[in-house]
TetR family transcriptional regulator
Amino acid sequence: MTRTRDDDRRERLSAATWTVLARDGVSGLTLRAVAAEAGCTTGLVLHAFADKRALLLHARELLHSRGTSHADALDDGTRGPADVLRLFLLRSVDAGPGEDDGTDRNEDARVWLGFLAASLSDPVLAERHRQGNHAFLGRCAALIGRALPELGERECEERALALSATVEGLNTLSTADPDRYDRRVRRSAVDGAIRTALAPRP
Amino acid sequence: MTRTRDDDRRERLSAATWTVLARDGVSGLTLRAVAAEAGCTTGLVLHAFADKRALLLHARELLHSRGTSHADALDDGTRGPADVLRLFLLRSVDAGPGEDDGTDRNEDARVWLGFLAASLSDPVLAERHRQGNHAFLGRCAALIGRALPELGERECEERALALSATVEGLNTLSTADPDRYDRRVRRSAVDGAIRTALAPRP
């Protein structure tokens, strides 16, 4: 497939949307701010994204597709389900092994929080959020089920819900307080939650 | 203390701020929307709250003071620390015993999420958030320490961080998906997190 000028432009706008949302939150995300960040006219942004909702959906799509590709790559048959689950969740809170480069890149978490706040008053965004979260829950529940085949489907789902809450809470809290909820804390909390999720049935 | 017209007005504005923030999110929270909700002029809102940040800080203050009074009332010497911790956290996710009235009032969670999203681009709000969260962590850590005196201070703090993440995640996720993260799920996730937090040291 030949790469077109439109592809380049869309990519530049995509990066600009991401930067503005992570930096200024949802109230700072305007077509104008994205245009300024991308160094183009507001008209050009409008050509690619009809409105603010389209920008937000695009950012959410990026988050989702990156997470999905990463998880698929982990689950390539070389690891057991418990290892896949752990690496997947550590990546979801930006605390995977080998990521200790001294900086706390919580951009993903900031984009995520901005999207979720916007979804409070927008049913389309809320629906997109639910789809993404259900995919996340489904993946976790399947991995738990493979690790502990004696659990029923419902129990796996319940445990997945608790994991999802831990990941969500760590990401949300670290946006405002990256020192307290630093990578070490996030890693340790994820490991604790996984121990609970993978404990044999009492 | 005599109740003045100013008190009444402030209370009406306070209720209006809460309603608008919970309903429309942080991008819908304007002096004008609060005035419309309270049935007064924008000038009157401005008389009580200098700007949008003041409205947000006020809403956050309400959340904090209600939580604090409730926790103080629980910890009145009639219950052990584990019971206080459980009731306190269940209340924090709106899933306390006797609250199963069939409705999911996630207004608090929506106000909280709106505040946090706004704090992404406002250091004053972010600082207020951190203060509140540190008070929450301090209270949880102290209760864990009273329940398990053999743990060191640091271990209690670590366990409190994990509890905080669970509570935060459940509240955040329930704003967009109250059916999936319903009261039963929230209660069960809190109970699981407390079991982990109060487990004897391995």
Notes: The domain at 52-197 of chain B is CATH 1.10.357.10 (Tetracycline Repressor; domain 2).
